[in-house]
Amino acid sequence: MDLISASLMAQRFVNGYSERVNVYLEKPIPSATVVVLRDTVDGPQVLLLLRNRELKFAPGAWVFPGGRIDNADHAQDSQFDIQPAARRAASREAQEEAGVSIDPDGLRLIDHFVTPEGNPRRFATWFYIADGNHCQQVSIDGGEIVDYCWLTAAQALDDHRAGDFPLIRPTRKTLETLLPATSVADAVLIGGRRMGGSVWQELS
What are 62's strand-pairing partners? Predict the structure, then answer.
């Protein structure tokens, strides 16, 4: 048996037999998320969606609109530049999950997270900021998404610390990044400064 075959070998757990799966070979799923912000007298508010508790990934958590990058999102883009496809995916997911129309060309990158090796389900996710001041109405799908809210980053984090507002770590880290922002425009500038270098965070 060669090394590749050996590393892929898994012993399945069926009727008392042990299972051993090499999860380190799991490649991250390319995905994209959009942080939709709107200006208010209390500062910028972010759109957060509540995921159905029956879902396998992040059940019952508050998240930004987002999902995996589909083949159709790539269009005619260069295979070496995933950004256009990621922006289209983020825009598409905002429409599908929240009924919010976002121009993909107006999205600004704020962060990138990748699930560390060793996790059975891994994602490589691009996070974008979108100006949501034009969003007059949110319409959730009622399936994957069961509720929504607009909160400032500080409010969302306070509720999370109180124990009644579940957040997955990438969402929480992004909200922490947005804490200093006093407006949507300011949040875009914060994102621009962060992405002046390469941001590649590994989060479990």
Answer: 50, 167
* 30 three-state secondary structure: strand
pLDDT-flagged residues of the chain (< 70): 1-26, 76-80, 194-204
């922006």: which residue's tokens?
Answer: 87
Q: In whole angstroms, what is the distance from residue 48 CA to residue 44 CA?
A: 13
The DSSP letter of residue 48 is E
What is the residue type of 96? E
Nearest of 115, 106, 111 to residue 88 by alpha carbon: 106
pTM here is 0.81
Please state, in angstroms and rounded to a whole number, the distance separating the CA atoms of residues 83 and 177: 21
Question: What is d(CA 154, CA 158) in angstroms, rounded to the nearest whole number?
Answer: 6
Spatial neighbors of 191 by CB under 8 A, at least 6 apart, are 108, 109, 110, 111, 129, 177
Burial letters for 95-111: b for 16+ Cβ neighbours within 10 Å, e otherwise? eebbbbebebeebbbbb
Query: Which residues 6+ apart lie within 8 Å of 136 measured at CB?
Result: none
Domains of the chain, first to last:
24-202 (3.90.79.10)
Question: What is the chain's percent helix, strand, coil content, to nearest 5?
Answer: 30, 25, 45
Q: Could you give the CA distance from residue 27 to residue 45 in angstroms, rounded to a whole number?
A: 34
The 10s digit of each residue's pLDDT in 76-118 is: 665 667 889 999 999 999 999 999 999 999 999 999 899 888 8
